[in-house]
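A common beginner's mistake is to predict each chain separately and then try to dock the pieces by hand. The better habit, illustrated here, is to supply every component at once so that their relative placement is modeled jointly.
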Amino acid sequence: MIRRKRDPFRGRLALPGGFVNEGETVEDAVIRETREETSLEVEPVEILGVYSDPKRDPRKHVMSVVFVGIIDSGIDNAGDDAEKIEWLDEEKIEPIEVAFDHMRILDDYKRWKASGGTYWSKKRGND
Amino acid sequence: MIRRKRDPFRGRLALPGGFVNEGETVEDAVIRETREETSLEVEPVEILGVYSDPKRDPRKHVMSVVFVGIIDSGIDNAGDDAEKIEWLDEEKIEPIEVAFDHMRILDDYKRWKASGGTYWSKKRGND
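With all components supplied together, the output reads:
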């Protein structure tokens, strides 16, 4: 997780990510944003889910595509929106510490590790 | 598939779909667009993939989230952008007949039926 340097949710934990540029694929944006915030080179492996609840970002209606990836190379070093990088035991993350709906995404990631599947904001049986 | 009533790709085959409204989740947009174009009520089951190649739509850079769904109810009746609805054997669809990158999506759907997974424009080993 990264510790956010800026508002919204300044000082909270978040998954690395950001906005897709026009002319860029979403998978390239994942690689670029992770590089900018963590200095790590990642390769997308699967799509975990698509999160588009209109209230999930206080700034405006934002949709996030979340990938599961592997780290290919690099030494972690916080940059851009990240104040620092924290390697955490996922069972010990405090929900109150987590920005946006990223705790929900982490919960879906635990479901994915247990039984696969894909996830979205209004998926039934997933609240 | 629907037979497109309007440009781009007027007269070609396409998967039902359309643009997400501000304040609407992507899964609700899938349900609404399918209803508008086919009169069928669908329930999303899994995310097949996210397609965001900048050249996939001649109008502008568009990202599509593609869901696999089941038909809950309804009698098919073409509406909105759809000139008519065609129920086709997926093995007999001519690629030249298919709009946008929807043939690629159909190919990924065949992969999904065989072995699951999720798909995106630059996924390796998938050209």
